[in-house]
Amino acid sequence: MTPSIAHPDRVEGWNRPPIIEPDGEGELLEVAMGPHHPSTHGVFRMDVALDGERVIRLKPVFGYLHRNHEKIAEGASYLASMPYTDRLDYFCSLTNNWAYALAVETLVGQQVPERAEYLRVILAELTRIQNHASTIGFLTQEMGASGTPLMYAFREREKILDLFEQLTGSRMMCNYMRFGGCRVDISAALLDEARKIVAGLPGFIDEFEALLSTNEILMARCQGIGKLKPELAINAGISGPMLRASGVDYDIRKVDHYGIYDRFKFRVPLGDHGDVYDRYMVRVLEMRESVTILEQALKDIPAGPIMDPKSKIRGFRPKPGEAYGRIEAPKGELGFYLISDGTPNPYRYRVRPPSLINLTVLEDMCLGESVADVVVIFGSVDIVLGEVDR
Amino acid sequence: MAVDQQLKIELGKQGVFVTTIEELYNWGRKNSVWPMQFGLACCAIEMIATTMARYDLARFGAEVFRPSPRQADLMIISGTVTKKMAPQVVRLYNQMAEPRYVIAMGACAISGGPFKQGYNVLKGIDRYIPVDVHIPGCPPRPEALIQAFMTLQKKIDGQPLTGEERPRHLNPEAQGEFPVPEQGAHDLEPTSNPGVWPIPVVIR
Questions:
Q1: Can you tell me the distance from the alpha carbon of A73 to that of A85, in angstroms, rounded to the nearest whole number?
Q2: Which of A50-59, A109-118, A378-387, B129-138 has the lowest mean pLDDT?
Q3: How far apart are the first and last CA of chain A?
Q4: CA separation, residue A345 to residues A82, A303, A351 (Å)
Q5: Closest residue by Cα to residue B77 from B67, B87, B89
Q6: Please, what sign has the CA dihedral across residues B135, B141, B142, B146?
Q7: Residue in B45, B67, B114 nearest the CB of A38
């Protein structure tokens, strides 16, 4: 049986005939957007072929931030790769830590104490809220709302980062989780501060929604733009809010039952149309669900150790074998695949980045849209170049 | 020529403002440094945080981030410069109009940082373009970026308009165009710009 290819026309590459026939008689205009372009979220290039304003072809060019993460990790011990995972998706260092810790815990077979599991959930959900808020801020900035929603988002993000800094010692690069637990315990005062931040979050989301959700410009720029069909989303391996905006009910927190997510009551928001507005709305609703998870977790967090006393964090040699640990990161399914050959270093270390795989359908979403919408569609994918290129 | 400070204060009390062209010119320059909107990696997020309400870079007259290098005075190299990106960075620097300044933000921009051992990472952007202020940190805090701004403002304020130390835009013999490296067989060609970054001599 021949394996089915999701995108038969993409295999032929850049020189294939255009999917959409140009209608005019004029020449195609080829525009290179990036690598230095205000809307590309970093260093990323899109080679766009335009017929007037319509996009006929779009070719993403990656690799401007290829930092050899996987190669460096193969030469380093398991623990030494933990700080590098912070720098993959630099908005959400704590969820990256968790995914990597989960992969090593699966490889070695370690247990995580209950308090550490609660701490992980609390920090991951706070990370999700600040990531989604910033993403929406950047998306609106690309539509021309220069700064205002982003300032609202960053105001809230700074509060969350202050908590991260007090707990882990760093604003962005937290390097907090360890194999079999967490690095330092949270104090009662800090937990109270977390409760205070969480109590203020629904008000922030209400304010954010009042500012944006029914905004005429945002609706005109987002609704019906960049539609992604659920079949294509599944075939292309899309995950995270992008997949759920297309109406596919797939959340790894519900599917995999990793950590202690079974204990919390939360819903998975889904979109109907799969357009940019649905992606925006799914993110807002996910923030609300994260707040409910946080409220439950902060109420129930038990006392106890935060590290498994039997676990070793350095100097261990896992038995030869392989392991895959995946979590629902704010951007989608983040997975780490490790192969051990019995030495202190992984033999193969592979990251399954949600940003890169979500970006593969960019062309399908942009075809036939106008060039001004490319920027908006690109912003709605929510990528971080550190994770795309690694 | 400097004005006697005591006399200046005395005249100020009488409502007479005395200054030199140099002071006035540099005062204007240092308070309207427009950075280029140019983010490379993780440090760019801290750069954005610096411009937001809490740290408020607008207090230093530098909130106007320009998307075009033609309108910018300052390039903040915020993040890892890879060998694929280095030619574009130098090209963007060449497109900026004088007077232009560079802040290398973060460990990666200074030296390659944690990714120094990577085969694709440039070991410091100062190999190709002159850097005015280096900020260490991974990533540097927004306060550190503000400190770098103040250091740069002090530097601009102290630049005499004549003589050897004058800024490059007043010096017709100063180098304007910096050679853009190209991808060679194994590395960037040339591997550094000796005029900017003399290859260190190792004495064993």
A1: 10
A2: A50-59
A3: 34
A4: 13, 34, 16
A5: B89
A6: negative
A7: B67
Query: CA-CA-CA-CA torsion for B46, B52, B58, B59, nearest 10 degrees?
Result: -90
Determine which of B64, B68, B84, B89 to mutate to test the interface with A (most A C-beta atoms within 10 Å): B84
Predicted local distance difference test score (pLDDT) of residue A25: 66
**Looking at residues A289-304, what average pLDDT do you find?**
91
Structural element, H or E, at residue B103: strand B101-105
DSSP character string of B148-202: HHHHHHHHHHT--SSSTT--GGG-TTS----PPPEE-SSSEESSS-TTTSPPPPP
SS3 assignment, position A77: coil
Which of B41, B67, B118 faces A42 most closely, judged by CB atoms?
B41
Give the distance from CA A59 to its chain's centroid: 22
The C-alpha atoms of residue A134 and residue A44 are separated, in whole angstroms, by: 19
Query: Whole-model pTM?
Result: 0.87
- In chain A, the domains with their CATH numbers are 69-389 (1.10.645.10)
Query: How many CA atoms does the CB half-sphere of B125 hold within 13 Å?
Result: 36
What percent of chain A is predicted at pLDDT more than 90?
Answer: 29
Cα(B107)–Cα(B78) distance, integer angstroms: 10
Closest CA to A304 of A72, A119, A37: A119
Residues of chain B with pLDDT under 50: none
User: In angstroms, what separates the C-alpha of B50 from chain A's closest C-alpha?
Assistant: 10
The predicted pLDDT at position A17 comes to 46
Q: Is the ipTM of this complex over 0.85?
A: no
**pLDDT of A9 higher than 50:** no
CB burial of B150-171 (b: ≥16 within 10 Å; e: otherwise) equals eebbeebeebeeeeeeebbeee
Measured CA distances, B28 to A66, A336, B1, B31, B34 (Å):
40, 52, 18, 6, 12
> In angstroms, rounded to a whole number, what is the distance separating the alpha carbons of residues B70 and B89?
14
d(CA A381, CA A372): 15
Summary mean pLDDT of chain A: 85
- Chain A residues whose CB is inside 8 A of the B115 CB are 67-69, 72
pLDDT one-digit tens code per residue, A332-359: 999 999 999 888 889 999 999 998 999 8
